[in-house]
Amino acid sequence: MFDAWRERAEELEREVYALALAARDDRTPARAKAIVVLVVAYALSPVDPIPDFLPVVGYLDELLVLPLGVAAALRLTPNEVVRECRARADEDVDAGRARWVVAAVVLLTWLVGGALFLRAFVGWP
């Protein structure tokens, strides 16, 4: 049973990474890019709306929100782009590069979010 969950989690990780690659492709529509950015940021964010230490409920957001977001982004992204990005994601994950790219995306997302927050609420130029 746990092996099936682990396989599904690895598959979801590859899909999220492939979507992150698709967001940088010019052929991906703006709506799909927006959903991809939200899904990737949510998946990689250290801040969790429902803390994982709460039994069952803590993991409910990951079990529902991430797969739904991934499915929505995949529907909006052209099939050709998805195929190419999945192939690249498989290569990168197998080579170990995906984790560094994911870390950079998370860091960049938090830096941009922090700058926007400071600009909006503190008046920082």
Automatic annotation (TrEMBL):
It is found in: Endomembrane system. It comes from the Archaea. The keyword Transmembrane applies. The chain crosses the membrane at residues 98-122. It holds the Pfam family DUF1232. InterPro entries: DUF1232. Residues 32-68 form the DUF1232 domain. Its main location: membrane. One of its GO terms (cellular component) is endomembrane system. It is a multi-pass membrane protein. Keywords: Membrane, Transmembrane, Transmembrane helix. This is DUF1232 domain-containing protein.
